[in-house]
Amino acid sequence: MRVFIAIDMPDSVKEYLRKVQKLLPEAKMLPVRDFHLTLKFIGELTPERVEKLKNLLGNVKFEKFTASTDEVGVFPSENYVRVVWIGLKPEEPIIELQQQIEKALEGEFKQDNSFKAHLTLARVKFIGDKERFIRELKDIKTEKISFEVDRFRLKKSTLTPEGPVYADLALFPQPL
Q: Does residue 113 have a pLDDT over 90?
């Protein structure tokens, strides 16, 4: 099964992100339907490896923190846009959590050295006028919508023609 580690967004943030999606400049894009912060993409695993992953993630401990939405940006660059995202601030506690997860999985799963705290808004297929697109994207005024982070999830992703379908496999830290 295809798995990843993420923080789900509360409904208030999801509603706001849907509003921001409507402000995105015109281009051939596939808007995201379900919003989460991917802390680590793992990929295809056997059920036995998923159980090992759950055990390792059970060792991750962190202090809850508050984060908020920030500005809109693109990956990989303004010259070659494939993803439109909204950043999160402050990045430090998010990066700290992501690095704790990396450390817990060290030696068992491939390390990710290119983490950026963001929520994907849309995947871009084609942009007619790239300069206009970037200019209009930079003109989007974003709000700081805050949310509390007190847990993360191991999720399964099933790819369908309508887009990915997500299901929770485990919640961390485990409720007492």
A: no
